[in-house]
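W.,

You were right to be curious about this one. When I first looked at the sequence I had no strong expectations either way, so I just let the prediction run and decided to look at it fresh. Below is the sequence, 318 residues in total, followed by the output.
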Amino acid sequence: MNAKQKSSHTFELLYIIGIIAISFSSIFIKWSTAEVSVVAMYRLYLTNLLMLPLAWRYRNELFHLSARQWSMLAWSGIALGLHFLLWMASLRLTTVASSTVFLSLEPILVMLGSYFFFRTKTNRMMIIGMGMAILGSLAIASGDFKLSGQALTGDVLSILGTVAVSVHMLIGKHLREQLSAFVYNFWVFMIAATSLALYNIVQGYPFTGYAPREWGIFLLLAIVPTLFGHYLFNWLLKYINAAAVSMAVLGEPVFSSLLAWMLLGEKLTPLQFGAGAFILAGVWLFIRYGRGDNKVVELPVDRTAPDVPVMPNDKIAN
């Protein structure tokens, strides 16, 4: 196996790890009884806290950004905070299957945005893979779509949250060409958390008084879906095009629905089980043929300033 193939397999493995990690997000949120904006805020602040030990190594880059970069970081962070607020709220109003399925719209929005803003090309296999994954996602939620009442509100919130995270991904693709994964994630998570903190202050939600169990859930959200999910995907934006990275959300309904079935007792039909395999096949096709113009190359490891996780040097150009 040559160096290029090894790099390719590494990216694919990390991609799968990220999908599984973000799939736990909906389960942890369902377990919590705190306001979703508080859950999201502490999820992100705790992630920043976990990243602090490495901040000294990036001290020069952290504070030497242009005005334009600060502006784009702010918009990316606000979009991420809005995504968490809207999508996490949807989980309180509908099932995991229905809430996560609308995230399948994200790669479509990102692909369109990538074409208009970055002129990223697509090919037939990418479109076929996306179509398979979207059809499978619709099948997973087919037994739970509701057209009235509380569930409809949850569906709308999930769709709006998907629009917000698509904006976050597109801005991130641009900034990751200029910034290391650590610096980008650190400031985006901080800005998102602070925007949610301001929202909580306006709403009058308490910042303290939560049971140890709630703090444990906040920490799990920081470690599993945020560090091993969102951070990892933002790192991959340097090496895989934004539409391909955003396809990860199409694997989320599969694992989230299975976890909800096992841990929350939510029902899943045989059709939905079969659709899960269909989604995974579509996701594989998309990531297999969806790197676009981003070339996968063998990248040297920078031992002096490793990212989290310790991976190829972010400073190597595509």
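Here's what jumped out at me. The chain has a mean pLDDT of 78. And, maybe more interesting for your project: Residues 37 and 85 are 6 Å apart (CA to CA).

Coffee later to discuss?

I.
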